[in-house]
Amino acid sequence: xxxxxxxxxxxxxxxxxxxxxxxxxxxxxxxxxxxxxxxxxxxxxxxxxxxxxxxxxxxxxxxxxxxxxxxxxxxxxxxxxxxxxxxxxxxxxxxxxxxxxxxxxxxxxxxxxxxxxxxxxxxxxxxxxxxxxxxxxxxxxxxxxxxxxxxxxxxxxxxxxxxxxxxxxxxxxxxxxxxxxxxxxxxxxxxxxxxxxxxxxxxxxxxxxxxxxxxxxxxxxxxxxxxxxxxxx
Amino acid sequence: xxxxxxxxxxxxxxxxxxxxxxxxxxxxxxxxxxxxxxxxxxxxxxxxxxxxxxxxxxxxxxxxxxxxxxxxxxxxxxxxxxxxxxxxxxxxxxxxxxxxxxxxxxxxxxxxxxxxxxxxxxxxxxxxxxxxxxxxxxxxxxxxxxxxxxxxxxxxxxxxxxxxxxxxxxxxxxxxxxxxxxxxxxxxxxxxxxxxxxxxxxxxxxxxxxxxxxxxxxxxxxxxxxxxxxxxxxxxxxxxxxxxxxxxxxxxxxxxxxxxxxxxxxxxxxxxxxxxxxxxxxxxxxxxxxxxxxxxxxxxxxxxxxxxxxxxxxxxxxxxxxxxxxxxxxxxxxxxxxxxxxxxxxxxxxxxxxxxxxxxxxxxxxxxxxxxxxxxxxxxxxxxxxxxxxxxxxxxxxxxxxxxxxxxxxxxxxxxxxxxxxxxxxxxxxxxxxxxxxxxxxxxxxxxxxxxxxxxxxxxxxxxxxxxxxxx
Lengths: 233, 472
Description:
The complex is a heterodimer of chains A (233) and B (472). Chain A is an alpha/beta fold and 233 residues long.
């Protein structure tokens, strides 16, 4: 479970996140929408403890990330917009390395199976990552989340730059992770994908969470209207 | 352990990097060539040394019948033995000369250095393991390590790793182990081959200990370069800026500081040129007894004092050969004059060396070069030890010759007195024993200490960088 309780972050007098209150349960995909600079990535950074909150609390499974940095990081997998992998290692080797950091030792076969489960083609898993597309790299990230048995996924614009097919594949993988009981926070600009994938949708503007919607209760056009309304406000 | 997972992954990544692979192979090739050429040089020099020393002795013993003092002027040679460690660290041997001509009345400088036969470029870029380790290997370490952390920050990998729960300390420690691993991978073949060369040539004295010490010094130096490289990489915002800073550090340490300090030392502690030195010596010699000029004021005074002491009026009435006594007296006076002037030169050299050694706090390369020459026994202190031994031998030989003349060329035998092969064969032969101690001067101890301090400081620097929070 992910929780933000009156969470604020101020940089040099500029408030990037302003009293954010948020709760994402296991089996839920929360899509955070907003313009550039709205505070989406700062929110992710606060949950990663890459930056300290100016006020409030960020919690993962009830633990404060500032206080229990290592413990909370063990529970999550973070997938950025451009997932960095070691280009001269294969998909299997990359997965073995990153899972090894969490103490999960995978054999070649186990790593290969996880990558296939995450949507990679069987013949690609042993190839060097330098030849992988962005979508393929994101799938390695999902495989890592499965390997680490993460209860929390933090996704920072993961579908940005993916072609529709790859984006759709990725949404399917998120659905799988959701059904495994993971609490997922995904920042995105993609209203369509947010509506299709998310359980709930939040809209941020100037660091504040200005709107929260149930994805099932809103149509694509209504979501777009509400979003544009807040962006132009 | 996370650090070993990071280290293992980094080594695998680096080994697969074609640039690292090519650079590593180039380093190994250069080391192989340097050891092969160094071993060849050592073999030739050792043979030449043995032959020359034997020949000098044969010539001495077979110089024919002659007056002992004529033999003193005929002179002989002392050759500095070549240590097998010069294969790896030739030190100053190739510039100081290997042969010393020993004759009556004067102390000569060593001559016939290898550098005299080569062009100027050889002095700078002679391919030896010491040159490669001192100048080229740090560049290799920089090229391998400058991107280690900086590039991961650029690519977002660092952020991704931190999100996995990896701390800065774990990341830097893992990278450091990996960089050390790559260094060890290249150093191990050299060490094994070097040790084999040493053992095959039957190391003398404490050569084995010196070899280990020398390699220890180089490993400390590599540690300095590795720690600085990783620390700078961690602190830099981009791999480009890390590279620029590290190259500047390399240039300052290996090129700029040594050059500036050498020039500075020569300016503030100038050494007189050889002809100027000999002019001063000759001027002072004129103020004392001249063994070859019985009519000089000082010689006449000495003769009168000896005659008075023995209560005779003519040197022919003395119970010994006066010429032998006067030549020995002259020799001892000349030694005092030479010792005085050469001590002044030595003092100037020491001041220059002290300045150079002091500058090692600005340059780990200087500290390492001085320390590796010290451990190899090829530094200026070791050379001085040889010249002192040769001078002690010369003095003893001249005394033996003069005393023979004094004691035996008396009475009827005085005129045309000569000795032959039997006598010369009984003269002591020059044998040189290198010091058993690794360290024979305070300056050497300081250079070793400064190298260790550089290593500790670089480690501390890396630990401070590692102790930063995730927001590098």
